[in-house]
Specification:
The chain has two domains: about 5-360, Alpha-Beta Barrel (TIM Barrel); about 370-430, no CATH class. About 50% of the residues lie in helices and about 10% in strands. The chain is built from 19 helices and ten strands. It has helices at about 5-10, 15-25, 25-35, 75-90, 105-115, 120-130, 145-155, 170-180, 185-200, 205, 210-220, 240-260, 275-285, 305-320, 340-360, 370-380, 380-390, 390-400, 420-430; strands at about 40, 55, 60-65, 95, 120, 160-165, 220-225, 265, 290-295, 325. The chain has an eight-stranded parallel beta barrel, surrounded by six helices. Helix 8 (about 170-180) packs antiparallel against helix 12 (about 240-260). The longest helix is centred in the C-terminal third of the chain and has 22 residues, at about 340-360.
Length: about 425
């Protein structure tokens, strides 16, 4: 039996109990939600996660960090350092998106060093091997090779996989009629699209979904049903192609649940702020409440170098409106492979968005640190303020740069500090024992 099967039958696994304690929720409630599919705990049978994560309804919003090599930057050590930075910055899960160098060895090294759920996009490896090993074009990928890679990665302990199975021939017709500004911006989605157009056949990931489910069930892999048609600019948001794919993913979700396979749904993308709440509602409705995993959304297209901010704005709105899992976006998005600093900046921005949303959602414990921070600020307790910060290192750096450690107030206000002034005034008011005025 799978995690979902056991949870559905009322069994509270140690894994569920651990995650429930971390989330401050009743383990029976978490087991019920995992059993029904509105929450997932990605945990491959062959992995031993020290920091598992529960994702879904009533739980804190989780953050994923994407790392991985490219053909131009195939260094394993750099990606392992990015993994370290990601974990230190507070990522709850990591995806290896490597497309350069010894991909299998890189993934194995990351898996060995990764205590949190690890995700991949198997079609990346299948495409790279088709080009570099078999000396064929991506459009000539063999469906059997894609399935072989999925099984290989499952055996190696990958906890969740992005599978672009909702891009069907029907969706292609919709895509053609909609005349998008940017077409398909999903890398995996573009590989599938090219294969379908060249071979004039249905998406093999859709046609062979039952085979994928068999692999996922055997090795306890959570499927992250990929958004091949996510909008790559705000002009393409909420179009027919995007919604068509979502309908297909909802149908596939039910098929996966019947086999005891856990499922997440991936979502946009670029999207104007006013469309985000409706998109979260539509996804939950069409996909039967399955956890929603969103990239951003990015709320404007014109901020290269600052897309961690555009993403955090969209992510906060999305999570407050029902999204469960935010994929970070770094300042390097659309420009280059992210550096170590970019990775940290992206995670911190997403964590801020997630926490802001958790306050709105009433997640247990979400407001506690904010209250403690307010009390520490009122006391002018700088060390406690730094300790409570999402990024204590940066908070301390700024505090020390300003020289505030030399006195009780910071260098913004100095002797004209509002808190200090209020204290003095309220003290006099209390001594007089009368009204403030």
């Amino acid at each position: 039996m799978t995690i979902k099967d056991k949870a559905k039958s009322g069994v509270i696994l140690p894994l569920i109990d651990q995650c429930a304690r971390d989330e401050r929720v009743d383990p029976r409630d978490l087991a019920r939600d995992v059993g029904s599919g509105v929450a997932v705990i990605p945990h491959n049978r062959h992995a031993n996660l020290k920091r598992p994560a529960a994702i879904g309804r009533g739980l804190s919003t989780k953050i994923n960090a994407n790392i991985g090599t490219s053909k131009d930057h195939p260094d394993i050590d750099t990606e392992l350092e990015k993994l370290k930075v990601s974990l230190e910055a507070g990522a709850h899960a990591v995806m290896d998106l490597s497309t350069g160098g010894p991909i299998k060895e890189i993934r194995q090294a990351i898996r060995e060093a990764c205590p949190v759920p690890l995700g991949t996009v198997p079609i990346y490896q299948a495409a790279v091997e088709t080009v570099e090993v078999h000396k064929r074009a991506i459009r000539e990928m063999e469906p059997d090779d894609i399935l072989r890679v999925i099984e290989e990665q499952a055996i190696e302990g990958v906890d969740f996989m992005t599978i672009h199975c909702g891009l069907t021939l029907g969706a292609l017709d919709r895509l053609k009629s909609d005349r998008r500004t940017m077409g398909i911006v999903s890398r995996g989605g573009s590989f599938v699209f090219e294969w379908m157009v060249h071979n004039k056949k249905e998406n093999p990931l859709y046609e062979r979904f039952d085979d994928i489910l068999a692999i996922a069930r055997e090795h306890e892999v959570t499927l992250s049903l990929g958004d091949a048609l996510r909008p790559g600019c705000i002009a393409d948001a909420s179009d027919g192609a995007q919604i068509h794919e979502l309908i297909i993913l909802g149908e596939l979700t039910l098929r996966a649940w019947e086999k005891g396979v856990q499922v997440m749904i991936e979502g946009p993308g670029h999207m104007p702020m006013d469309q985000i709440p409706a998109n979260m509602l539509i996804q939950k409705r069409l996909c039967h409440g399955a956890p929603f995993y969103v990239l951003g959304p990015l709320v404007t297209d014109i901020a290269p170098g600052y897309d961690h901010i555009t993403s955090a704005i969209g992510g906060a709105i999305a999570a407050a409106s029902g999204a469960d899992f935010l994929c970070y976006v770094t300042p390097a998005e659309h420009l280059k492979l992210p550096s170590l600093d970019d990775v940290k900046e992206g995670i911190i921005a997403s964590r801020i968005a997630a926490h802001a949303a958790d306050i709105v959602k009433g997640v247990p414990g979400a407001t506690e640190k904010d209250r403690e921070m307010a009390e520490a600020r009122q006391r002018l307790d700088w060390q406690r303020q730094i300790d409570l910060s999402i990024d204590p290192i940066k908070a301390r750096l700024y505090w020390e740069e300003g020289g505030a450690y030399k006195g009780p107030t910071c260098t913004m206000c100095g002797e004209y500090c509002a808190i200090k002034t209020f204290r003095r005034a309220i003290s006099r008011c209390d001594k007089k024992g009368g009204d403030a005025v």
